[in-house]
From TrEMBL:
<protein>
    <submittedName>
        <fullName>Uncharacterized protein</fullName>
    </submittedName>
</protein>
<dbReference type="InterPro" id="IPR002347">
    <property type="entry name" value="SDR_fam"/>
</dbReference>
<dbReference type="GO" id="GO:0016616">
    <property type="term" value="F:oxidoreductase activity, acting on the CH-OH group of donors, NAD or NADP as acceptor"/>
</dbReference>
<dbReference type="Pfam" id="PF13561">
    <property type="entry name" value="adh_short_C2"/>
</dbReference>
<comment type="similarity">
    <text>Belongs to the short-chain dehydrogenases/reductases (SDR) family.</text>
</comment>
<dbReference type="InterPro" id="IPR020904">
    <property type="entry name" value="Sc_DH/Rdtase_CS"/>
</dbReference>
<keyword id="KW-0521">NADP</keyword>
<dbReference type="InterPro" id="IPR036291">
    <property type="entry name" value="NAD(P)-bd_dom_sf"/>
</dbReference>
Amino acid sequence: MRINARGVFLGSKYSAQQFLKQEPRANGMRGWIVNLASMVSNIGMQGLTGYTASKGAVAAMTRTIALDLAKKGVVANCIAPGFSQTAMLDNALGGALSDAAEGVKAVIPRGIFGHPIDHARAAVYLASDDAQWVTGITLNVDGGLVAQ
């Protein structure tokens, strides 16, 4: 909780303070906050109570930040990554990613793992002028996992 929730809280707080000191751009925007939650903020996952609670806190906090800052030219959103081919997933599977990969992929509607670039592209969108009217959402970048 200290890192996942408090760290995001402090990062959002100090970003917002800086954004509010800035003059708005021509489109009225002062800044974009993009936080990282997790698919487990939408669905539970056995054995990950603390992690799930911390990522749920990030999603809820982001919605509230979005409401607090909406009229001030700052939008806030978060991304909820799904199973992505990273060292974190391999560690979560006890180093058995190669052995468990097919079983994990079977529960993902797209049938493939995501990659860090998928989440980066979502963040770039949410921090762009194209998303200036998008605020308070959790964008699931998970191959359709939580849509089930």
